[in-house]
Amino acid sequence: MKEDRLVRLNLDTWTGRILLMEEAKKITFELTLKQLLSIDPSEWTENLRKIYMRVIEGFFCIPNPILSITYRRAIQARKRVAEALSLVVRERRMERERGITKNDMLAALFESDGDGSGIGFSDDEIVDFLVSLLVAGYDTTSTTITLAVKFLTDTPLALAQLKQEHDEIWAKKTASVSLEWEDYKSMPFTQCVINETLRVSNIISGVFRRTMTDVDIKGYTIPKGSKVFTSLRAVHLDQENFKDARVFNPWRWQKPLDSSNFMPFGGGPRRCPGHELARVALSVFLHHLVTRFRYSNISTLCIHFRYPSYI
């Protein structure tokens, strides 16, 4: 698994005291670039990440380049990121003309030019799409990784059971053998931990939708064409849906639960396309964290990482 190799490369660089949130951001950014463009970690990817961080900072400020220096810098950074990605797209188009193909998101976007649908993407459209996908996967997954470690540190029994599950997987492998898809599918309690982290943290608090027809809810009619905000947090933290809803309890997922009450990635045709990649990244990261670091070390990591500003 490419995710396993990238996570191991990052953890191999950890020395002394680290800021977990920052390290998680590096991992998720590199994983996303690998899936989108088949680019391995390098000085180029790290420089791009530093520029991209300014784009993210611009999301939470006054959207006016005159009143906000942060917003102005974010706009400039977005332009630099787009220019860097444009070069990659042009080079890949030339490679494609020479018969060189790769298995990634960019290749899939190129394929839309010749699939008979008559719908092709220009380079500018592809770059805009790539930037949007980076936004979707970078900050959310890294924050979830950070909070998963935080919740596990606060719940020693869950950490012990998680470690036991991964120790059993580790015992069947050698240090030179990476995790495979079968290993990922043999992590049931890990999925419980991930589900509960997503439910309690609610990284995405809700989604906007537009009604396609008149909708009646408890005697109130929402007219067709209305914009609606679906609060995922309200569903996930509702005591009627989950007992002790504000308590981190991964064991609750060991029995069947109503799937309509759990939607961290949205739902329907607009469900987050990267939901499985996010789960894989979380699972692989937790595997190496609990098998390569002692509990005391994990506690130290939790004490010294920076929490997201909205926690």
TrEMBL record:
One of its GO terms (molecular function) is iron ion binding. The keyword Heme applies. GO terms for cellular component: membrane. It is a single-pass membrane protein. Its cofactor is heme. Keywords: Heme, Iron, Membrane, Metal-binding, Monooxygenase, Oxidoreductase, Transmembrane, Transmembrane helix. One of its GO terms (biological process) is brassinosteroid biosynthetic process. InterPro entries: Cyt_P450, Cyt_P450_CS, Cyt_P450_E_grp-I, Cyt_P450_sf. SUPFAM superfamilies: Cytochrome P450. It is found in: Membrane. Pathway: Hormone biosynthesis; Plant hormone biosynthesis; brassinosteroid biosynthesis. Heme binds at C272. The keyword Transmembrane applies. Belongs to the cytochrome P450 family. This is Steroid 23-alpha-hydroxylase cytochrome P450. It comes from Artemisia annua (Sweet wormwood).
